[in-house]
Amino acid sequence: MNCPKCGHVIEAENVKFCPKCGAKIEEAPVEEAKEEVKETEEEVKEDNPYGPSFATQTPYNVNNTPEKKSKTPLIVGIIAVVLVVALIFGLVMSGFFSGLSGLFTGGTKTSKVVFYQSKDEIHMIKDVTAAEDKIKDFEVAEGEEDENSLIGVDKSQKHFYYYSDYDYEKGEGTACVIPIAKISDKADKNEKAAVEIADDVSSFQIVDGGKAVYIVDEDELYYFDGKESHKIDDEVDYIFAYDNMVVYEKYDEDDETYSLNYAKYSSKPQAEEIDDDIDYVSSYDPEFIIYSKDGDDGKYDIYVGSAEKGCEKFAKEATLFDYDVKEKTIWYGEESDTELTLEEFFEDDLDGAESVSMSEFMKEADADEIFGDYDFTASEIRETMEMFEEYYDPDEKLKEETGKDYYELISGYDEDDEYCYYYYCATDDTFWKISYDAYRKAHDAEETYEEFVEEWEEVKDDDLGASFYDLRYYKNGKSKKVAENVIYASAQNDVCYYSHISDDGFKKVSLKEAYKSYLDGDYNAITDFSNYVDYFGVSYSISGNDGQLLELDCDLEDFANIYISKDREKAYAIINEDDDADGYRIAEYTNKNGTFELTEKEVAENGMYLGQCGDYVYYLDNYDSEDGVGDLYARKGSKSELVSKKVTSETNLYAFDDTVYGFSSLESYDEADFYRFKDGDKDKIESDVNPYGVYGLGDEMFVFLKDNTLYYTNGTDKPVKLAKKVDFVETVSSVDFITIWN
What we know:
Blueprint: H1 32-47, H2 80-89, E1 100-107, E2 114-118, E3 121-125, E4 137-142, E5 150-153, E6 159-167, E7 172-179, H3 187-193, E8 195-207, E9 211-216, E10 220-224, E11 229-233, E12 236-241, E13 245-252, E14 257-264, E15 272-283, E16 289-296, E17 299-306, E18 310-324, E19 329-335, H4 342-345, E20 346-347, E21 363-365, H5 367-371, H6 378-391, H7 396-402, E22 406-413, E23 419-425, E24 430-435, H8 436-459, E25 469-475, E26 478-492, E27 495-500, E28 509-510, H9 511-519, E29 537-542, E30 549-552, E31 559-564, E32 570-575, E33 584-592, E34 595-613, E35 616-624, E36 629-636, E37 639-648, E38 652-656, E39 659-663, E40 672-678, E41 681-689, E42 694-698, E43 701-706, E44 709-713, E45 720-723, E46 728-731, E47 735-741
Parallel strand pairs: 1-38, 20-28, 30-34
Antiparallel strand pairs: 1-47, 2-3, 2-46, 3-4, 5-6, 6-7, 7-8, 8-9, 9-10, 10-11, 12-13, 13-14, 14-15, 15-16, 16-17, 17-18, 18-19, 19-25, 21-24, 22-23, 23-24, 25-26, 26-27, 27-29, 29-30, 31-32, 32-33, 33-34, 34-35, 35-36, 36-37, 38-39, 39-40, 40-41, 42-43, 43-44, 44-45
């Protein structure tokens, strides 16, 4: 399996913490009481990180666009690290699924140092930009053979952390750190320069300056100050390291409760309790802690504050929708008195629905398709048909629909491996077939209709089963109501998206359409509210302006998604006009005095929105969903420029203004051609590159793997070979990742 935070491959079973980054992998096996305490919360953390009230309901969120009939599997492996981040920002739209289509990255810090592992040897290349005959490759230490022993580099890029050994069965290892400046070409000196932090480490997080916090013996928390370790607490479950303190949860086995705690880094760190008997922690940031407690039926008292100053309750029996740590804002809902019955929600348009046409599903066949296996002559087929006319009655339903005599002959699988019934039409002397599913629907329609109507009469006075909220916005200790009758909300880029019943009401759901779903086997077509969440209107609100509403001057009915730029000046509507098309029409709206007005109807005709990096918005046009390939454009302001034709969005894309690095197609998951795209052209950097073995160093510099050989490129010159037999790579540079969902 892969770590959900850093993507590190973990082969051992029953591992509780990632050996590389320290992230929690799974619940430790404790008493059943602990599972009961966290049961609802864990469902939410997995499926809906915004609030516990939607744990069993498919939420609506405009921040995820459904993928158009792609036949290509989702990309996994190295992008697993950002997949979890993406889930924090958006949930799957009701009735669809979303695929991670690409990643844009832009370097923020540049470094020439790269670490790699070959079997059990950990190496450092001091300057990857040096000439090939002057590459300095130093052996740093010994790790665990054939397992990733590279932990990482601290924020100041002065210390490297690794495991000198690791027991993957136990999920524990020996963590070490070495100052990068002290690494030399002498392996014995490097061994002396390294500091062994601790044995039996099961969870590890880096603190800048050669420091760290970690867990040993499954639940004992320690702080390493660069020289020695200091114990902080016992019974620790989750840890989150920050610049000057660690925030953590601990589980009290006696009371069967969780508490939230912190400890500042010092030679004698003191554990301080923030609160006890908590249910769910949303933000562990020391300056903006958010947690819920005293929960009942999906509603909680919500607390906010800081680790050192304490937290206060600001909402009672509420649902947390979303929050922004940077802006220190919270979006939450207080349940309203709004109720809807099923009868109020559905449009009763069942008249005529009891009859399903059989003839419209009939497809013409030929005699060879029916009698080919029997080697009948034409005269024998004619004699057989005359026998059917003499001894059998024609199909009554088809006779009623068409006035023609259809005789059922045989049944079997057609050339598309679909089970069908075959018919002879004596009136026209033609042969026909109908699939089993269509046959069943047509012949069972009246009986099924009676069952459906009976169920409808039983449940139509029942409550819809949806909770409606007053959407509220919290900042600087103050809360204000933004909207009423909200069913769901989430925020991104300081913009809150919410689904609600508008002042004009809502579009009722067709009961006839529900009946069609019922015919197809969806026997919860009436009562499953999650099927209809998107029937409510979608609106937007700006959190940076105290929650004021942002108007969008357009019809939302065909919207699959909408993206608002970071400066809130542009909005890109992803419009699903043709279900048979591979992509979407992308329209651009411009913010004019708080209202987004249409400024370009068709930025892309058959497109796929990728995302924003810097001042540029990237998208594909002429998109082919089967290959995951399209023409890549970079848009700045209201002007688009072709970056390159035929670019795949199924691997990482590295953007530096109008220059993009990536792959034109993905023939396999092991190798593909790596390109530099610019001004409509593409220059091949190297062929047969591992698509998930490319690492950005910043300033258009990369190292990449090809056949387990590590290379360096600056994007223009011939790649330089750095090392052979490379299994794992760790770069020192800090790179910003922007996750792109389509």
